Amino acid sequence: MKLFYVYIVECSDKSYYTGFTSNLDKRIVEHNVGTHDNAYTLKRRPVILKWTEQFTDPNQAIAVEKQIKGWSHKKKKALIEGKWEDLVEFSKNFRNRNS
Length: 99
What we know:
99 residues, alpha+beta, GIY-YIG endonuclease, 3-stranded antiparallel β-sheet, 4 helices
């Protein structure tokens, strides 16, 4: 069974990058080596893997990646730290702010 991963890395400038891959170890190495010239992480190396979730369905993984990419820095940090109440609270604040 093929596995797919959604991951968050913390960049040297403390920003987060969220990605999707079928080979997590290789992808983290690529981020740190600078394999892709137009990558967000190229000028923000080194990166450190902070969070990952594994999936068997690539479409589900891509949907989760897109969802997380739309989150604020503090909401991503709450996910990384497993602070579920904060994750919910930051979602509520976002909804209330845009009402």
